[in-house]
Amino acid sequence: MSHTAKAGVLVAILGLILAGCGGPAKPPAGGGTGGVATDFQHLPGWDEDDLAAAMPAVWNTCSVYAGKPAGTRLNYNGIEGPVEDWRPICDAANRQTGRDRTQIRHFFESWFTPVALTGLDRGQYGRFTGYFAPELNGSRVRGGVYQTPLYSTPSSARDRRHSRAEIARGALQGRGYEIVWVDDPIDAFFLEIQGSGKVRLTDGSVIGLKFDGQNGQRYKAVGRVLVDSGVATLDEMSMGYIRNWMLANPDRTQWLMNQNPSYVYFREKTAEDVIGAHDVPLTAGRSLAVDNDYISLGTPVWLDIEDDPTVPNRTLRRLVLAQDIGGAIRGPIRGDLYWGEGHDAGALASAMNAEGRAYLLVPRATLGLPPAQ
């Protein structure tokens, strides 16, 4: 988004080693806390996913790995391996130019081994939410409905450290840091949560905004504030819930925002692509924000999440790639799925808040295994 310091609404870190069918499997080679190796036949829904939809994200990852120095270490939740293990994988990926489902499935099964993601408390489940790239309405000059500024990173260290409440009271006003003024303070707040987006200006042109820094204040999830105050339960909480609460309580909206002293600064960019922390365009429905203290960006991840926001009463099971990070995405089994741009993507992102399991696809070479035949 870039979602680089994006603030999500919840922090839930859960997880346990998941054994393969027929009894516990041995931990994969490489040590660490990665989890338990299984096989693709035991991945729930593996045979049903359209894996070709994940290939653009794989190619983008390969473009980054191609520029990494030899010896760069990649981390799969405690299992480490060199980036060189990806060289033959990316050669094979670049030959996957069609959409033959059998052929693409064979590609993944040949080069990777699934490893159940292990949480810090050794639990089995973690929490997964969604995010998107919003489009706001804005103006280069302040006036009329355009009263909420979006700021670039202040050049002064003292200015950068102001809290959200101080900024709301005008601490940065008139200092020349304003990029644009937008017409909705709630939209501006959620643009910070997403980390990147677009602004349609009064002349019809569109600019992109990308996360460029943060004020150094500790992030506090406003969703957690509402849960702790008894307004909502953890299961009810989502971006949509927070937005609706703000709309219903306009006299308390700024109060709630101020509970999170962290504030995001932006830089202007072209509006074509939404770039994640991996410095590649995000792929809607296939790019995941993770905690890269546990999962290296670029890692394929199989999701098995209880609720699919696109189809009621269905489990979301699909292959995604870790290509972004977020300020509230903490712990190994915690993810934020990118749904794309605009209103429809926002509706899906706002509806997503569910527990689930995840499996890392670790290169077989990292586990000391040859490619499968």
Which tags fit this structure?
373 residues, alpha+beta, six-stranded mixed beta barrel, six-stranded mixed sheet, 15 strands, disordered N terminus
Structural commentary:
The structure is a single chain. The chain contains ten helices and 15 strands. The strands form three sheets. A six-stranded mixed barrel has the order 4-14-11-13-12-15. The chain is globular, with a radius of gyration of 21 Å. Mean pLDDT is about 85; it is low at about 1-35. About 20% of the residues lie in helices and about 25% in strands. It has helices at about 55-65, 85-95, 100-110, 155-160, 165-170, 185-195, 220-230, 240-250, 255-260, 340-350; strands at about 75, 80, 110-115, 125-135, 135-140, 150, 180, 195-200, 205-215, 265-270, 285-290, 300-305, 315-325, 335-340, 355-365. With about 375 residues, it is of the alpha+beta class. It starts with about 55 loop residues before the first helix and ends in a 10-residue tail after the last strand.
